[in-house]
Design a protein that fits this description.
Blueprint lengths: L1 H24 L24 H4 L5 E4 L4 E4 L17 E2 L7 H6 L1
Antiparallel strand pairs: 1-2, 1-3
């Protein structure tokens, strides 16, 4: 007989717990549950040397112009008007972009 009593008490406790959780959840402000967007990323032109430019996969360093630019993703290789391949660096400063492509 005690088994039925314990089972009945458990069943009546569950709705009570759910009511308490819903009560406290109603106090959470809607803004706290929303996903925030990340801050805008730093533009490539802000990096002033190869070591700070090439760790960012979206950026390309050119030694002939000493500037960091967005990698032209519409091209496999950057056009010569942007930077000569022998002067272009992406990923690491010590290796030409053309050598990375040939690997």
């Amino acid at each position: 007989m005690s088994f039925y009593t314990n089972e009945r008490q458990t069943r009546s406790t569950s709705p009570s717990v759910a009511a308490v959780v819903l009560f406290f959840a109603s106090f959470v402000r809607l803004g706290e549950c929303q996903i925030t967007t990340p801050p805008p990323s730093t533009p490539c032109s802000a990096y002033k040397n190869c070591d700070t430019c090439v760790p960012h996969t979206k950026c390309l360093w050119c030694f002939s112009t000493n500037n960091c630019t967005d990698y032209p993703v519409s091209w496999l290789l950057p056009p010569a008007s942007l930077c000569q391949l022998s002067q272009a660096r992406w990923g690491v400063c010590w290796c030409e972009l053309m050598s990375l492509i040939m690997m």
